[in-house]
Amino acid sequence: MISIDCTAVEDEAAKNMYQRPELDYLVYNDPVGYSDLIFNGDPEEYLKNVTDYSPLD
User: Fold this and answer.
1) How big is the CA angle at 4 (ends 21 and 52), to the nearest 5 degrees?
2) How far from each other are the two terminal CA atoms of the chain, in whole angstroms?
3) Total Cβ atoms within 10 A of residue 19
4) At 16, is the secondary structure helix, strand, or coil?
């Protein structure tokens, strides 16, 4: 069994409040996809591509 500390991953990869829910979604709805992203992918690049972030002026 493999255990991933999701809090540590989110703190490192998610740079804003819009990216954390995306990781939470993967953890609960696609745990295999989440583990594949963490072990084989680039979570920061993934989050940059799937989230829309526009800072308030």
Assistant:
1) 20
2) 46
3) 20
4) coil
4 lies in some domain: no
Query: Taking the chain (57 residues) in consecutive chunks of 10 residues, what is each chunk's mean pLDDT?
Result: 75 81 88 88 86 69
Range of the domain at 27: 16-50
Look at residue 11 in the predicted model and tell me its pLDDT: 80
In a domain, 55, yes or no: no
Please state the separation of Cα 43 from the chain's center in Å: 6
Largest CA distance in the chain: 46
Residue 11 forms part of a structural domain:
no
The pTM assigned to this predicted structure is 0.69
